[in-house]
Amino acid sequence: MNILQKIRATTTLKGPIFIPTLTFVGLVAIFCSIFPEQAQTTLNNAKLWVFAHFSWFYILAGSIFFLFLMFLCVSSLGSIRLGADTDEPEYPFMSWIAMLFAAGMGIGLMYFGVAEPMLHYLHPLQQGLSESERMKDAMMTTFYHWGIHAWAIYAVIALVLAYFGFRYKLPLTVRSGFYPLLKNRISGFWGHLIDTVALCSTIFGLTTTLGYGAMQVNAGFNHLGMLDGNSFGILAVIVIVAMVLSVISAISGVGKGVKILSEINLILAALLLIFVVVAGPTLFLFSGLTENLGYYFSSLLELSFRTFAYEPENKGWLSNWTILYWAWWASWAPFVGTFIAKISKGRTIREFILGVLFVPSLFNILWMTSFGGSAIWLDQQTGGALAAISGNTEDLLFGFFNQLPFGLIASITAVVVISIFFVTSADSGIFVLNSIASQGDEGAPKWQSILWGALLAILGLSLLYSGGLSSLQTMTLIIALPFMAIMIALCFGLWKGLMVDSQYSGKKFSQGSASWTGKGWKDRLEKIVNPTDRKDIRRFINQVARPAFRELVEEFENHDLTARMNFFEGKNPKIEFEVVKENLRNFLYGIECQSRELSDLVVEDSNVPNIDESKIYEPITYFFDGRQGYDVQYMTKEELIADVLKQYERFMNLAMDDSHNLMTADVENMGESSDNNMQ
């Protein structure tokens, strides 16, 4: 067996997903490496085109995701469980919350924790604001970018993966969310296309994050005197070393060690947060957090739909901040969503949405308040010490630590945290890429992890070479556009799946089965396996309903009540038992022949006998008050009589209560009765 045959025998990669992805990523990498100037120009033009034509779509999509999730949360659909109805959560509540905190941490918070609030403060959207107003707007904008909307984008993908994966037993891939829309076609071309777009989006989202990480690690080493400069060669070494470590982690089977390392890293990040709160303006931060939260939530609706349609001078700001963020979050959604989905089996949809939207968001807000609020306060106290280095965004974190006691220790800790996040993010990213390209198959051979690590490194370096971080952001922006459209479609698929789920779970036994004792079960089975037609319904009406109603008429007349039986011939025959009242509406219990379309799956299933037509016919009840009826075909004459009497008893109990007069009074003859009384 040659090498090629061994690869084919061991790989879990699906050709229709992997080959188009590899081709696209390879062409981008080659173009950026061989023609860096032309690539930069092309990418800039593409970015401007997307900004000009689709900025509104990114904003609207993000808001739709948030509103859609909140609607599911407050509706009855929120009670549906992610898994079987009897499934219990795999992780205790506090452990699940802790893992959601972990999902909220990463390179992004380390990179932007100081930088973004400072940049918004130094370059406000509105001119002429006071210091306090600039600071408040800076924090609110930062919360908007890192808060609920970001996690709504993640939550949509995570909820779709968890719901269809655990409830429908489908693979944990994006295509599974299209099952209600495409049915079995998700295994064909359209399913492959959806997963290909998701895979490409995840690859470029990961490379953008790794680009941020490489630049900040480089800045940290420069600050500590371990490196000098930020040339492409230095960045290349950092990326290659980080990817080698990530691949070794992915293929060595030391998952437990990596897990421990990640937990240690979270502890270090938490210690950094506590250090900043204690060493910084503590009381100011607590007061600021309270006011900032109120300002953020009160402005949330306005922020959600802000496109600056009437302020074109601010559209450049929107494009370079909010739109890029939304594209970045969308590209990371399959990555973060897969992690969240895997830990959320057994949770209800309501619990899932509240946890995923608010737990990480509140943590991010706390982080940004502590780092960003302290940085702005220190800049004010030092006469612009941080403003002086704001041109180098990656240096701001270490410049901020310089203004605090034990700044060197804090900077060393930050470099360690960023480096570990760099490696663990890439390691987890390789796992998710394998999962998407393999349609959820987790038994990937080691060489696939090496392949993905090399691909991420090559792509990241080629884009950095052609235009630095801007090129990474642009590719993320472009590939996230079709994926945003896919996410909108996923909302429709999820909605349809949930509606069918709700109806399916709420489906009750037919009225004729509710009180059945098992008598005559062979006859019942024959009726179940042989779908009824019009002849069967006529036979039921003539042999069961007519004798039952005739006996009821006779017995009601024995009690001095006026009752009658009405029969209507026709294509769909029906029969009625009616009790005539003077001041009340007449009691009516009717049965009519109704048709119902059968599922194509049942009609085409060779293992379901005796079904040749796409319709069946059923005797369905109807009542004087328009209530929904039910199938009575399995009832005997005595059971049908008992059912009529139950409905009549209900009618009389309601009629005796004045609060139900609007429904039980004889409205049609009320005017005639009044005229007679006047005469």
Give a quick precis of the structure.
This protein has helices at residues 3-10, 15-34, 36-74, 93-104, 107-122, 131-146, 148-166, 179-182, 189-223, 232-251, 255-279, 282-298, 300-304, 315-342, 349-381, 396-402, 407-437, 446-467, 469-506, 511-514, 521-529, 534-558, 600-604, 637-655, 661-664, 670-678; strands at residues 563-568, 574-579, 587-597, 615-623. The chain has 679 residues and is mostly helical.
What does this structure look like?
- The structure is a single chain.
- The protein is mainly alpha-helical.
- It folds into two domains: 489 residues, Amino acid/polyamine transporter I (Up-down Bundle), CATH 1.20.1740; 152 residues, no CATH class.
- Helix content is 69%, strand content 5%.
- The chain is built from 26 helices and four strands.
- The protein has a four-stranded antiparallel beta sheet, with helices on one face.
SSE inventory with pairings:
Blueprint: H1 3-10, H2 15-34, H3 36-74, H4 93-104, H5 107-122, H6 131-146, H7 148-166, H8 179-182, H9 189-223, H10 232-251, H11 255-279, H12 282-298, H13 300-304, H14 315-342, H15 349-381, H16 396-402, H17 407-437, H18 446-467, H19 469-506, H20 511-514, H21 521-529, H22 534-558, E1 563-568, E2 574-579, E3 587-597, H23 600-604, E4 615-623, H24 637-655, H25 661-664, H26 670-678
Antiparallel strand pairs: 1-2, 2-3, 3-4
